[in-house]
Write a structure and sequence with these properties.
By secondary structure, the protein is mainly alpha-helical. The chain is built from three helices and no strands. The relative contact order is 0.15.
Length: 82
């Protein structure tokens, strides 16, 4: 279980950093599905990782990260549907 959680933490970190880096180099727009999905998925994985390890300040920031990502994803899909 510990190894799986650690892998989730590393994957989450890579996803969030990839989203930031790709956006910074203008390879992904901040309103693209790829950017939003990378941030959301990375944030969720980091929540699991940090909560498991009792790093609650880190858990908090990732919960906020995901809370920001959810409405952005909802807006994205609403735009695509309408």
């Amino acid at each position: 279980m510990q190894l799986m959680i650690d892998i989730m933490g590393w994957v989450g970190s890579v996803l969030v950093i990839a989203a930031y880096g790709l956006n910074s180099y203008q390879k992904l727009a901040s309103d693209s599905l790829a950017f939003l999905a990378l941030n959301f998925t990375g944030g969720v994985l980091l929540i699991i990782y940090s909560a498991f390890h009792g790093a609650f300040a880190n858990t908090f920031i990732n919960v906020v990260w995901v809370i920001i990502a959810v409405p952005a994803l909802i807006r994205y899909f609403a735009r695509k549907a309408g």
